[in-house]
Amino acid sequence: MRQALALARRGLGETWPNPAVGCVIVADSRVVGRGWTQPGGRPHAEAEALQRAGAAAQGATAYVTLEPCSHHGKTPPCADALVAAGIARCVVAIRDPDPRVSGGGLARLREAGIDVTEGVLSVDATAITAGFLMRIEAGRPLVVAKIASTLDGRIATHAGESKWITGPRALQHAHALRAQNDAVMVGAVTAAVDNPELTCRLPGFGGRPRVRVVIDGRLRLPLTAKLVSGARQIPTWLVTRRDADRTRLKAYEQAGIEVIPVGTGPDSALDLGEAFAALGHRGLTSILVEGGGGLIGALLRLGLVDRLAWFRAAKVMGGDGVPAVAAFGVDRLDQALQWHHLETEALGDDVLETFARKH
To answer: pTM above the 0.85 mark?
Structure first.
């Protein structure tokens, strides 16, 4: 199962709207087939592993990180494929909460006389599949907020200088985070001031382009921005108000940007809950939010951040620097958001700390 989980990780950021799944087929204590969900979500991991195993799958054991599907979609049910291949035993890490499956795949295997074992390394599988689980259960993608700051939580000088607070190893790791998520998001101010490309520029990375998302209620994204000029080559989505200026929206659309209109709240700000529901409806399972502090602060206030990836540089800037997170109304200590520490990684003089939100 650990091999299957490692294979599943290869698909992170590549397989949406489907989950990243790994499958290993073992016969006579020997691996005869391996597979993982391919870019775009098809073929599925089980189909890949069975194709490699061929006749050796007869009487073998299949280790799968997520319950095999049992419904007819764009591909035949994986549960039926395992039955047809003559698998004798299937070991599954976690069940699929998708109502179209949700126990149906395991039932199909058992009906065919296949010995089924559930719950093996389920915690690890849940962590890998967290984005897909979030989209199915909550209707929105998993949200990872990435922050690169000084030790005292500053992301830019008072004059706006921000490149580069952290060093090259941290920057490389930040690009790896882009590769592990379906989409990268920024707010309108960050998009206008930093003029980012939001691409994964790791050596050798040739994966499916990550969707670039801009939250821009006032249509401040310049038409000359890199995000606009590259929109025909890399999927770029603009989330804005339903009543936004149609002439300017048409200019974005002509440049290749997909516009996603959403409603507004009582304060006339974009309804971020509706925005993330719309992104989940389009199939995204995980989003890396890279700023700015206003957007991250708003998402934190609304409980829409599930993970924090906080890069800290060994620098101190002082109180006149720009804070990493905008104010969101904490008056008492018991109102502060609570997080579980997951891991800490040294990256030269910089440090990456990862946290999960406490529920």
So the answer is: yes
